Amino acid sequence: MKNNAHQIEPLQKRLARFQNGSPIESIETLLNSIANFFNNEIIITPERFQTSLLFLGIHAVALTVSEIFWDLKGESGYKKFLETFVDGATEDTKFSVVAEKIHNWRNILAHQWLGSSGYNIQYNYEMNLGFEIKDNLLAINPKIYCDCYIKAFSAGSKIWEYEKLLTSSELDNAKQRIIDKFVRK
Fold first, then answer.
1. Does pLDDT of 103 surpass 90?
2. Domain tally, the chain
3. Residue 128 lies in a domain
């Protein structure tokens, strides 16, 4: 399997399209690229119990989108992404409630591997809840978490209705942030 997300279109042609096009051009290129190339890898992680990759991948998308849309970084950007796009209808699928714990866990996975906050989280693929907290221990079902995340990219979801969430000025700013990231080496 090849991931050709960056080779489908010549760099200069894509950059010109971003610079000369409307914000929709660059935003939808970003979202479509995530949906078509990145999510195809994330979606298979639960069935293969590749849980660390699941958390790293979802977090990467959340931080990318929140920085582009709202210029939010770190935990605040991650929480905003979850609140806006991922949180489900039930209390146990409102992952933004435990955003701090998941964000800290992702930091352990990405930057430290061993850390005391690893004692505060456990995976439970068997439980029927998205997550629960008992005695300061977050038990999370990675499959449900992943399903809620993937649903955020389904047809008709809020992520594709970003024009309703962002003002025209925010859309222009998002376009510029995409261009700035795209040309950064």
1. yes
2. 1
3. no
